[in-house]
Amino acid sequence: MSQHNFENLDVRKRGCRLAVDVCVASYGSKDFALKDQIQRSALSIPSNIAEGAERSSDADFCRFLDYSAGSCGELRTQLMIHREVCRELGIDHFKNTPEMIEETREISKMLSSLHERISPK
Length: 121
Prior knowledge:
- The protein is mainly alpha-helical.
- The protein is elongated.
- The protein is built from four helices and no strands.
């Protein structure tokens, strides 16, 4: 199998957009450990898609799609935790947190669909 053109994949484009949204939303956060972890999870989603697409087999690509899906679930969990911590402390959470959480759900579905399409039979 030849390499996939990851730059044209809608799921990667949406992952990049989400990563930008997360970085912008968390920019001013003083909780440096959580901010760093959230940003790294967000960046990992499209990065793993790109890395897998550049591998030499569909099986490798599928493995990296799994990593991306794992990062997507990790990001969703971190955003949910951050939202609850902010709620308990009575402070504002990241702008657009509910929308970002929903986007992780949509990206997870897209990753699963892509994985099914290219998975070696």
